[in-house]
Amino acid sequence: MTGEFDPLCPLEDAIEVFEDLTCKKEMWVIEDQFHPLWNIPNLGKLDCHHYTVDWLQRVLFSKNYNEGVSNGRIAYVENHGDGPFGDCEWKPTVGPNQSYF
Fold first, then answer.
1. What's the CA gap between 67 and 65, in Å, rounded?
2. What is the number of domains present in the chain?
3. 90 is a domain residue
4. Residue 24 domain-assigned?
5. Model-level pTM?
6. CA 74-79-84 angle, 5° bins
7. 13, 17, 42, 73: most buried, per Cβ within 10 A?
């Protein structure tokens, strides 16, 4: 999970690390957010930690390895969209060594 305009971990860096991972992975890009991901309007005013722990629980403790996780999915969670579990799949518009903004 990353803020779209995170100055401490720019989106292009987060995407590069995500693409290098060889394990189960899913990335949520939170529209119009920066580094602190607390009280997020896009996520029902919850912090990112609630969703991160839920995802880890599904990955680590599921009896079926593929249950509940869309491996390799990148979601762009819009401010007024239907959240991270809706139709929000996103293909990054930047690659390695390219600046997002």
1. 6
2. 1
3. no
4. yes
5. 0.87
6. 35
7. 42
